[in-house]
Predict the 3D structure of the following.
Amino acid sequence: MIKRLSSSFFHYSIILFLSLILIFCARVLYSNVGEAPIYNDEPSWMQGAYFYHLLFIKKDILNKDWDSFISYDQPPVAKYIFGFLLNSYNHKDIDSNGGLMQWQLSTIIPEYNAPLIKFIHQQENPFDRKLLEYNNSLLLQIKLARVVPLDQQDYKLCRRAVFIIGLFATALLIIIGSYVFKNIIPGLMAGIFFLTNHTVIKVFLLALVDSMCCFFVLSSLLVLFWLFHGLKTKGSKRRVVAVSILEGLLLSLALGTKLITTYILVTVVLVFVASILFEIFKSVKAKNDIPVKIISVRVALLSLILTCAFSFFVLFNPFLYRDPIGGIIKMDHHRMMLMQMQSRTQSGGIKSFSQRISAVCKNGILMGNDNLNIFESFSYFFIFVVGLGVLIKKSYGELCTGFLGPPTILILWIATTFILNGAMIHIKWDRYFIPFMMCVSLIIGSGTSEMLDLLVVRLIKFKDYLFKRPQDQNPS
């Protein structure tokens, strides 16, 4: 009984201590919202609030501005959120000087233009000429651009909202870690590692969309856990269908915020495919018939999720109304061309496989802490390996019970994030590595919690040894 109380005391003391750290960090960071100077990408997202006015205030889905590259450069969900904030709280008339945003003409596109011309003369590559031609076509689209007027109060309002969404994303990370590892301490540790990372702090204090991406991706992952729990417990059909529709909505919101979140959509598909293959494997191993009913249910649910995700994604974006498939292909082509321009002309461009591996290791696995000494690096990777081992062990144990559950889903999500984002990342900009940091935070949180558990056990044994009565030490 005394040992149990001692263990509980240490356990709840750690939980209280970690919770206080998180609250303190959140409070300190919130007090710094609005203090940083305007970052060069903030006007891009803030002035996109024009499209909120266009869709929700004027209800104009036929406006020619929907066909501009500024409309389909990135999906509009984050722009709608900024527009709602500016319209509802600051009463900003974003249509008075609205239109296409001139910031593109004065800052970003010319940055590509001159280096591209120099690069083409050096390389004489036909593909690079295509990049320059595409860049010039973008310049032609924005010559008559106008500017949405924004002041410091507008930026401060949107930064506060972004930071609050980032706190909700951190809370989801804590919930996921606690749910997967059946212990709140790994979740709290993951939240602390994530929220105190210098890249995450910088991005969450600016009016950028990365915190929204984190929130929608983690929400989708958590709902996926919920969905497979319902399949395991054979919950009501209506609830399973409702959760599937919710999953589709969250996927569309993630993709509708930024196209880089495609990895969560791939994760969902892989999880369903893996669950179907696992059911077939179990049947073959037990020499039973193939479970056609279970497989058909999984296929139907995946189809429902993908249909809802596609439908909501198109619904949120009037650019896609006339030709959804062609519009998505055009969006993808535009992003690929822009990424090629960035990687060729901006500092930190990734041009080789070795650079890609190095960037993922330094900025992803090490979470930007690439100045560690040998001892710190060894300790970090040791905790990382321990955390990964704990996750794999939990996944294997659950698979042995005949069920594909949260640990396996989390492993598939981590693998998809590293493989897909690692293959697509084109430039070493810190915020592009935040998806890796979410995965690593959960693994490091698990490893740190495991080490803490071992330490607590040793401390309890040491305390028992010190306070052992003399007759216990010498029974003779």
